[in-house]
Structures are given as C-alpha cells and as structure tokens.
Amino acid sequence: MYKRKAYEKLLLWKEESCGSTAMLVEGARRVGKSTLVEEFAKREYASYALIDFSKVSKEFKQLFLDTRTDLDGFFLYLSALFSVNLVPRDTLVIFDEVQLFPPAREFIKHLVTDGRYDYVETGSLISIKSNVKDILIPSEEESMKLHPMDFEEFLWAMGEDGLAQIIRASFNERRPLPDDLHRKAMRFWNEYMLVGGMPQAVAVYADKRNMDAADRAKRLVLKLYREDIDKYGESGVGRLKAIFDAIPGQLSKHEKRLVFSQVEEGGRARDYASAFAWFDEAATVNLCHACTDPSVALALSKSESAIKCYMGDVGLLATMAFSSTGDSMPEVYRHVLLGDADVNEGMLAENAVAQQFVASGHDLYFYSKWAPTAEDRMEVDFLLVKPYPDAAMKPRVSPVEVKSGKRYTTKSLDKFKLKFGKRVGERYILHPRQLAVDGDIVKLPLYMAGLL
After folding, report:
1. Residues in domain AAA (predicted)?
2. What is the Rg, in whole angstroms, of the alpha carbon atoms belonging to the chain?
3. If I label 407, which of 96, 194, 347, 401 is the partner at 20 to 30 A Cα–Cα?
4. Do the Cβ atoms of 143 and 24 come closer than 8 Å?
C-alpha cells in the first residue's frame, strides 16, 4: 500500500477514541478505502476480521441479523467463519462496503457499547436515500473522507519522498527551490495532471511509467462511475449523466462555470439541486460555488446557481477529455508533459488545484463579477480563508488565481483587493514559475497548491 495521509487520522482516532466510537471511512469508489483500512488493521492490531458486504452470502447476512441480540454468539460465529482469534481491545472488525448492507451500520451502536473490539466501516454513496432507508444512523459513528491521492502522496508513490520534503520546506520558509529541483517538481506535477490520484492508475504508472496502462485503469473507474449513476441515480439518471458528460466541455471554456442550458435545453439552476446533492454524496466531482459577498464566513453568501463542477480526480478528467477510447497516448498528453500552457486554457491545472484544496480540507468557492466592459469585470478562481500575518494572524479572505502560463497579469487580484479592502489577506498566484513574494501577493509554483 502507498503511504496515505489518512493513515495518521486513523491512528489518532484509535488513540483518542479508545473504542468509544466507530470510524466510517467514506469517499468515491476506487480511492483506496478498503486497502487503507486493511493495512491499518494489519499494522496496528493483533488481529482483524474483514467483512466485505459485496462478497458475503445471503446466509451470512441472515445469520448476522439473527445474532444481533446475542453478541457472544455473534463473536463466536465471526471468529469461526473468518478463522480469527478475537483479542479484547486489540482486534479491529471491518465492515467493508457497508452501504450494501445498511443493518450492519445500524448494529454499530450496540457493538461499540459492548466495547470489546474496535470497528471501522468503509462505504461509497453512503447516505444515498436507498442506503439509509429504515435504519437509525448511530451517534457512536465518526466519519472521515478519503480522497484520491494528492500531489504529495503521488510523489511518495513515485519514490520521491525527498522532493516532497524539500517542497514543503521551501513553502514554509518562503524561498524558491534550486532551479533544477523546480524543473523536476514541475515535471512530476505535469505527470500528476495526467495520471491523477486514483491508486490503480498511480500503481501502474509508478511501476513502468506507462501512461497507456494508467489510462486503461482510469477508463475502468469511469465505467464504474457511470454504472453507479445507472444503479443509484433513480429518477435523475438522465440529468446525472448529462452533467457528468458535460464536465470536460464546460471546464475547457474560459469561464468554467456550468451553463445549465448547455447541459440540457431549457435547463435552470433549480432543476439541478438534487443532481448536485447526489454527486456531492458520490464524491465523484468537486463543486465550487460562487461567493457573492466574500467574508471570512464564505458560506453565508454561497450561490446555488453559479457553480463550477470539477472532476474529483484530475486524471479522470484527462481521460474523459482526451483519451476516452483507444490505447495510444493522445498527442495532447505530450503537450502537457512538455509544459504547454495552452491545453484547453489550463483546465487540467485548475482542476488539479481544486483537488488539492479539497484534499486539504477546504470547501471550494470562487468570485465573479460581470460587467459590460472588461475593465470592470472580475473573475477570481478560488477563495480561501487563511490567517493573515499583517492582521495579527486573524482570518482573512485570500483570493487565489491559477495560471497555467508564465505570462499573466494580476488585474483580478488587484480589483478584488480594491473592492473588499480590509477583508482581504494574502493574495496567491499559482503558476509554473518559481516561488516569489511581492508585498501581499505570494506567487507559488503549482506543485505547492496542496500546502495552502
């Protein structure tokens, strides 16, 4: 298993919970939930029992239901069926793909109260209506989201721990990397924009640097996501498919917000609320909402009608946009690897940055002001709330612009500062060039996005 930051979160849960809660690890399909949890069980417990509800028989499910009121009998059955010695306070019981058998999730309450063992659940589409119908969600359940691998985890998988470490040190000390290391980091960033962070794609690419094999792995994931829409989309299947398939086209435009009428003739924002809620639950996309009046409480002026819809993984976006069929590496991939800034106006770079922000725990917001003249228009790619050194580290709104080319202006950042004044903290530009600080504008290489 590749090193994942979520492992440390599981360690902290084990230490602080001491069996008083179960942990639910949720996220999109194929992001590595089962692999992470089983590796955690192997390393941190004397024994573990893995119950995969995508594989267990109907007989097991019935026995599970029959023994819920007899915990001693349940544990004896579990020990015998999985050939595991259950050690009090040193065994982890894993309910894998728990959304496929909701009664198991409800049973967590009684198991945690019993206190003999620790419990981790994994699931996708965990709160879709059909998966929570007629069950009581246990209050003893904590949860954490596992995302596709971020850029730092990608570097670890590629055996570049040292490069990851020096990038982090460079960010913390606000000093640029030596030029040769900067060029190396940018090469890996360009590879990351194509491969992405789905563990299967990263594994085959890390093994032989084979982009074709990575694409094949990603096409299988995309196929699975479309099958999930068919299976769980209920009455909204058509609209869900339309949004999903429209993402590359919408992101390839200069203004990357979703234009509903282009997704569906006559489409309006209010028609899509349930579809966006479904995608948010499935975690296959990252939604970025317009913020109409930016302040440190960005959610207070969140718009439900102006939305940018990024893919949850930039590698999947690359495959959808440029390599949905065929086995040979598309020519556009070569342009990306060579650092060509004009690949669909930087849609891969912006999607990759959004992915890093989400993995770091940020909600996604942007700011846009339309005006008849270009001089009065303003578009800021992302808004973050961060401590501001010039305000005694009090939180301020930090506008972030993503630049895939080396030549650009700071007009939008300047207009934003002029309009919102003291609400604004440090302003950031993420670009392919070296780190540089110019007053309150901090210019960071794209590969440092996940450190913000």
Report:
1. 21-155
2. 23
3. 194
4. yes
